[in-house]
Amino acid sequence: MRISVEDPLTLAIAPPKDETPQERETREQAEIEARRTSEVIDEQIRQERAALKKKKKSVKVLLLGQSESGKSATLKNFQLQHARHEWAEERASWRAVIYLNLVRNIVRVLDILSREMFLAEGEKRPGSAAIEYLSDSDDETTSDRIVYRFSDKHRFMQRRLGPLRSIQSDLENKLGPGSQEVRSTAHISATPFDSPGSQLLLKRPSRDFGINSTNGWKSALEKLRPSVMASARPQRRSDSDHDEITDVLVACKETMLELWQDPIVQQVLSHRKTKIEDSPGFFLDDIDRIVSYDYEPSDNDIVRARLRTVGVQEHKVVMDDGSGKEWLLYDVGGTRSSRVAWASYFDDVDAIIFLCPISCFDERLREDRHINRLEDSYILWKSVCSSRILAKTEIILFLNKCDLLHNKIKRGMCIKDHIPSYGSRKNDTITVMRYFQQHFKEISKQYSPEPRPFFIHFTSVIDTKATAATLGVVEESILRTHLRNADLL
């Protein structure tokens, strides 16, 4: 071998000139072992990097269900447990949403009262004609006419609370499209995401910050969130720090209480098929507490508050359990016109939480008064279960609003009057819940492309303590599936 004296590296690694054959064999074996050790270390580093990359992959959960099924309330419960800092930052902003809910409650009662007073006055005037009453609830009227003893006090309350209609408009303008409920629209399929090419209709936008819609409740709260400087100060309001809306509400507080507690008004409301207490965003029992300059929304208030989701909202939550695991939760608009956007989120989620409000067996969709809400949920569930894209996706069913179901049954409502297939079964809450559970289970078994486990939870997601326990079980199940798919288990 010719060695250049000008190359010190070559000199350093060159074998000794007087190397014996035995020494050469020993040296070559040592070099082979060193290379093998180096390759093992390199492979170990590669695997650790790959595992770290997989570990950092976010857990993605899609919340599905019709409008007013409890998707946003479920998400708020998740944030309450795992994103306390962001929850605290948004707390003051929910005040306007809760006031809008309260004002809507009052305006709805006023509308019902006005209609009954008009009919009562009309019956006193010969030849008078009744007018059609438009309500935001179906089946409002009763078949029998009842005579109510209205007085000047009721006319005074109507005039005194008249300004609340302007307050409602102001709050809706401030909060944006999410504050507007969808009314009857042209007929739209229950599952527009099933149509050919539906995934091409809406491409998911790429955003650094987790909001995929500018019309959802997260966006609405951003408009109301205090500035950084303001958030450094105590959030409690003083008499000099309140706004005009609070002024009007405080001025109307006693009259609002009188309206809600009035025996004649309660008599009118008790004779209606749809109970205002069952509607989302009900705060009439809290007037005395929340109509105050010092009011700060509680956790339960925020979870109960109603603000419609428009489009698809992406919420990023970093777990505070020390793992630093990032969860992405997608809250979707549930009205039929919003569902076409769902398909583009099917292909890359770890789990779906599907919510069905089982208390709505006697109700109809806001956007289509011909469609029973429970039947709409059956159609949605069937479509989600039968999707081949979701064949290997974990699907968890929340049969929600069990508290409202119990209240309806306690009031004497018979399930078989609305669901003939219920037959002669006992008309009690547990039997009804089991009936619905079995029906959803059969749909899943019949229409899933391949066998899948059936995960079900009976919930009332406005109950924060009970929902926290349920979500703890669900989170563990989803995380195990996520890690298993990432080959980390």
Output the keywords.
489 residues; alpha/beta; 6-stranded mixed β-sheet; 18 helices; 6 strands; 47% helix; elongated
Would you write up a description of this structure?
The longest helix has 36 residues. With 489 residues, this protein is an alpha/beta fold. Strands 2-3-1-4-5-6 form a 6-stranded mixed β-sheet, with helices on both faces.
**Structure classification:** alpha/beta
Distance between the termini: 54 Å
Give the SSE string: HHEHHHHHHHHHHHHEEEHEHHEH
What Rg do the Cα atoms give? 31 Å
Count of helix runs: 18
Q: Major sheet: size, sense and barrel closure?
A: 6 strands, mixed
Low-confidence stretches: 127-139, 198-215, 227-241
Question: Taking strands numbered 1, 2, ... along the chain, how are they ordered across the largest sheet?
Answer: 2-3-1-4-5-6
Number of strands: 6
Instruction: Tell me the helix content.
Output: 40-55%
Describe the global form. Answer: elongated
The pLDDT mean sits at 80
What topology does this entry show?
Layout: H1 8-13, H2 21-56, E1 59-64, H3 71-82, H4 84-91, H5 94-124, H6 152-160, H7 164-175, H8 198-201, H9 217-224, H10 228-231, H11 244-261, H12 263-270, H13 287-290, H14 299-304, E2 312-318, E3 326-332, E4 351-357, H15 373-386, E5 394-400, H16 402-410, H17 429-447, E6 455-458, H18 464-485
Parallel strand pairs: 1-3, 1-4, 4-5, 5-6
Antiparallel strand pairs: 2-3
Helix pairs in contact: 3-18, 5-7, 15-17
